[in-house]
Amino acid sequence: MPLTRGGVHRLADITSEPGGKGVNVARAVHLADQPVLAVLPAQRHDPILSALAERGVPYRHVEVPQTVRTNLTLTEADGTTTKLNEPGAVLGQEDAQALLDVLVGACRDASWAVLSGSLPPGAPPDWYAQLVRALRPLGVKIAVDTSDDPLRQLSDAFPDAAPDLLKPNSEELAQLTGADGEALEAAAAAGDPGPSIAAAAVLVERGVTTVMATLGGAGAVLVDAAGAWSALPPPIQVRSTVGAGDSSVAGYVMADIAGLDAAGRLAQAVAYGSGAASLAGSAIPTPAQTNPDAVQVTRRV
């Protein structure tokens, strides 16, 4: 039944999962039996750390005074998702520096560093730009998936702080380029990814190596200096959109490490996003729950 303000709703099922965008990426990579390390601020006995340990996901944390926030996600039978997010724990200046130091140390031998999510209160508004600059000398590839002011602050630092992969959705792509977000969504839904490709190309011109814009049920587009590709997902029953974008990032990164070309990276990314959307709650897909061969990829430029 739909959510009714002031009404009483009986929940059919309840699950509790360690989440957050970066944690979701780490979980997806771990489920694929690939080496990964989640880096996050948390108290030593925080439930999120216990949950990661129970699932065998390696992590490194920086001790902070407050517990990690708990978010509530309500998923209806048709896949409609309503999220209630608590405010994040405040991150002090020393905490932010400690996290940066831990991240840099962890990435010295890494192939990819994925920077995901909103910034906690107290973090510098341009923190993602600072992190990209700190990681760049290591030679590690850097992916960023964020939104709103942290995304705008990062964009203002292009090309100096431009990542190797930027993953906006259509609304975020519009925010960065001045495009009409509703027009991008409408065109993609009608089978025309051209406007989204044109907007993504603006960010490539500004220094981003690869832009992968996710377009919900319309799939995704990938743009780099060599060209542009669009991808349509296989038909699925959408059960929850939680973690779909994060799973797409994980799929892309793992495909790149495996040496796949642009079309193959996009296909695996969309397959992982579709796999997540077909699962209930905040479940993250295993490789067996994804099917890159069922994704239709088209070279556009």
TrEMBL record:
This is 1-phosphofructokinase. It comes from Kineosphaera limosa NBRC 100340. Pfam families: PfkB. Belongs to the carbohydrate kinase PfkB family. One of its GO terms (cellular component) is cytosol. The keyword Lipid biosynthesis does not apply. Keywords: ATP-binding, Kinase, Nucleotide-binding, Transferase. SUPFAM superfamilies: Ribokinase-like. Residues 7-280 form the Carbohydrate kinase PfkB domain. PROSITE patterns: PFKB_KINASES_2 (PS00584). GO terms for molecular function: ATP binding; phosphofructokinase activity.
